[in-house]
């Protein structure tokens, strides 16, 4: 896929910014041994509320959820930042964000204990970030700016 | 030959290298951010938590083995039925109703699931007694619903209805008695049970008069029964955590405690519904009056008995005792040196005799502190318990939050070094969260302020009344003199404190406790 220079810069900046957000969120959780998603899950709303509450209250499930969350965010962030397995990272990120959205959907009539930093109706920042990852998936840049370039470089040169 | 061309021969050019590793500086910047975050966090943690070991509540205590305990319930109205539910017994039609609601409503589904998951306590209800026939019949129906079925399900033996509490207490089919009557009958029923060798679970407050408070303590001790006062707040997690923090001197010297009750609806002000089936034929009015001054039959007095001193202990005995008992378990306050009360009937001018606004100040000079209580039944402004001390203050409800005082001596160095921020929440406990932590994020601060509705043990929501009854039953089964957490001594201190406030209100003077001669003067 050919990009204009401006297009390439825009896509890479979007990828790095999203990667930054994922990586920082993940590492803060990894570095804090006491962090747990329990309170967040208990505060869930929408039609999957009971599933998220079950996760929060199940002693064997919660540690797995917490581990996958913290390390998932970190590794997705790393993949986007470094430009390695970027499309897989973007897909995994979309899945994670979908779970976040489904646990706290921006539907009218649902109130959460967690404060929101804006007003939302159906579309919220989680969903917008999910769409940003979709763009990153659809328009890959890691083979141009990123570690994946090394593979790309090898593939385009004859032995 | 150009450098790039030389690199091309190796497969990767310098341009590839630069483009491939372009984001490394970004990772470096992020790493620096993380380092700052971690060091800020560690500073905060080391500031207060170092050396302090909060005691977290343990899980639900296992049931002590033993034969089935046969219970008699005296008073199967609102509170009596709630206690039966906490034991695992509800009306079969109530189960049907919950199931029908649960079919379409998630809240009721959870409610039903929670009740069904509540552990069986190895008890049977073998006797009920209520002066209102309908309540007695409901008590019998709920008591037979051992298997928690709806109306079409299998039932156990129907408990026997006793027409008087004396007959129930004398019955050989009853091992222990639950007293859920109006206040003026607590001690008469409890003593009748104790004298018949039955263990007693009595709703708060212990007593209606000062004299019977002493008698209750004597009889319970002489008979050696297991007695538990129905202050289920004894099981509240945050109180247990607060106790451990105060014992470790986290907040410093306490000088003032403020506790409150605020309600603002007819139900909260004790204006309960009057059952249309109730009349002079279906209520044993004479037995209801008991030791109270005689009054002609009155449906209003029967169903709204809390509004009259003739049967009630008012805000002091009914609601202040919840607050007092919480503090007595945390601080071991005991009976105050003096009490002074004021208030009046300022909103509910409906013929009641108990005030709907009450203020009381209790002095503890030997502890160098004052306990303030204020209540209104016509405002719902939420006010928690505040324990104010020299180094920090503690806000207590279902959650617990400690705020650092700017002028603290103990934390002076940490405040000066910027390790701790004065007037901000520095420590919180939220039931349901597994661990105690210094508050470091806005989310944590928000949660600490708002609290959660659930109380957890081992990650599961549990009814505190269930835990309180369980503790009583375990002590009975241990049969080795072990008394539960709200035993007769705690009940005695609670009742005397409440009576000091009530007498002060009535007599418009300060009352004192003569600890040597054990009397209120």
From TrEMBL, chain A:
InterPro entries: DoxX. Its main location: membrane. The keyword Ribosomal protein does not apply. Keywords: Membrane, Transmembrane, Transmembrane helix. The chain crosses the membrane at residues 61-82, 89-107, 127-147. It is found in: Membrane. One of its GO terms (cellular component) is membrane. Signal peptide: none annotated. This is DoxX. It comes from Lentimicrobium saccharophilum.
TrEMBL record, chain B:
GO terms for molecular function: nucleotide binding; oxidoreductase activity. Keywords: Membrane, Oxidoreductase, Transmembrane, Transmembrane helix. The chain crosses the membrane at residues 21-38. The keyword Oxidoreductase applies. Residues 149-231 form the Gfo/Idh/MocA-like oxidoreductase N-terminal domain. Gene3D superfamilies: Dihydrodipicolinate Reductase, domain 2, NAD(P)-binding Rossmann-like Domain. InterPro entries: Gfo/Idh/MocA-like_OxRdtase_N, Gfo/Idh/MocA_oxidrdct_glycsds, NAD(P)-bd_dom_sf, TAT_signal. This is Predicted dehydrogenase.
């Amino acid at each position: 896929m050919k990009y204009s220079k401006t297009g390439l810069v825009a896509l890479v900046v979007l990828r790095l910014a999203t990667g930054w957000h994922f990586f920082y969120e993940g590492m803060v959780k990894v570095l804090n041994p006491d962090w747990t998603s329990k309170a967040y899950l208990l505060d869930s709303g929408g039609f999957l509320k009971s599933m998220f509450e079950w996760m929060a209250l199940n002693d064997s499930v919660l540690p797995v959820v917490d581990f996958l969350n913290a390390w998932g965010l970190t590794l997705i962030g790393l993949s986007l930042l470094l430009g390695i397995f970027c499309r897989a990272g973007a897909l995994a990120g979309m899945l994670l964000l979908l779970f976040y959205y489904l646990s706290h959907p921006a539907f009218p009539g649902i109130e959460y204990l967690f404060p929101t930093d804006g007003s939302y109706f159906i579309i919220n920042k989680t969903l917008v970030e999910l769409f940003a990852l979709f763009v990153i998936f659809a328009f890959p840049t890691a083979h141009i700016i990123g570690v994946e370039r090394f593979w790309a470089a090898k593939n385009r040169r004859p032995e | 030959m150009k450098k790039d061309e030389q690199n091309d021969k190796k497969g990767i050019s310098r341009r590839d290298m630069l483009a491939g590793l372009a984001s490394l500086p970004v990772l470096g910047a992020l790493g620096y951010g993380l380092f700052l975050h971690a060091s800020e966090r560690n500073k905060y943690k080391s500031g207060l938590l170092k050396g302090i070991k909060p005691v977290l509540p343990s899980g639900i205590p296992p049931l002590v083995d033993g034969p089935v305990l046969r219970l008699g319930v005296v008073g199967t109205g609102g509170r009596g039925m709630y206690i039966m539910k906490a034991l695992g017994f509800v009306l079969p039609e109530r189960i049907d109703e919950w199931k029908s609601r649960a079919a379409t409503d998630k809240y009721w589904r959870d409610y039903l699931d929670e009740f069904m998951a509540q552990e069986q306590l190895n008890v049977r209800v073998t006797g009920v007694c209520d002066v209102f026939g309908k309540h007695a019949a409901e008590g019998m129906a709920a008591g037979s619903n051992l298997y928690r079925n709806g109306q079409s399900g299998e039932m156990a033996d129907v408990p026997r209805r006793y027409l008087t509490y004396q007959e129930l207490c004398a019955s050989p089919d009853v091992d222990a008695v639950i007293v859920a009557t109006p206040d003026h009958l607590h001690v008469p029923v409890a003593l009748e049970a104790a004298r018949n060798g039955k263990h007693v679970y009595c709703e708060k407050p212990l007593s209606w008069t000062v004299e019977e408070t002493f008698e209750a303590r004597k009889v319970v001790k002489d008979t050696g029964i297991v007695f538990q006062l129905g202050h289920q707040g004894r099981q509240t997690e945050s109180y247990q955590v607060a106790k451990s923090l105060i014992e470790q001197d986290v907040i410093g010297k306490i000088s003032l405690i403020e506790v409150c009750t605020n309600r603002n609806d007819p139900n909260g002000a004790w204006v309960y519904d009057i059952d249309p089936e109730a009349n002079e034929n279906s209520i044993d009015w004479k037995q209801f009056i008991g030791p109270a001054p005689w009054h002609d039959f009155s449906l209003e007095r029967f169903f709204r008995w809390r509004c009259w001193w003739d049967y009630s202990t008012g805000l002091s005995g009914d609601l202040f005792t919840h607050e007092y008992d919480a503090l007595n378990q945390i601080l071991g306050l005991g009976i105050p040196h003096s009490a002074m009360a004021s208030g009046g009937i300022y909103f509910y001018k409906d013929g009641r005799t108990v005030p709907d606004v009450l203020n009381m100040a209790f002095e503890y000079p030997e502890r160098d502190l004052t306990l303030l209580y204020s209540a209104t039944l016509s405002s719902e402004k939420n006010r928690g318990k505040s324990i104010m001390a020299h180094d920090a203050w503690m806000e207590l409800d279902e959650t617990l939050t400690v705020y650092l005082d700017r002028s603290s001596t103990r934390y002076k160095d940490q405040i000066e070094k910027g390790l701790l921020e004065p007037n901000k929440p520095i420590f919180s406990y939220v039931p349901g969260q597994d661990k105690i932590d210094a508050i470091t994020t806005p989310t944590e601060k928000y949660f600490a302020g708002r609290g959660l509705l659930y109380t957890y043990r081992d990650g599961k929501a549990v009814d505190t009344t269930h835990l309180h009854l369980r503790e009583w039953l375990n002590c009975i089964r241990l049969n080795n003199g072990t008394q539960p957490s709200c035993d007769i001594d705690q009940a005695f201190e609670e009742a005397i404190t409440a009576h000091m406030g009530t007498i002060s209100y009535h007599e418009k003077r300060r009352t004192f406790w003569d600890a040597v001669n054990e009397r209120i003067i």
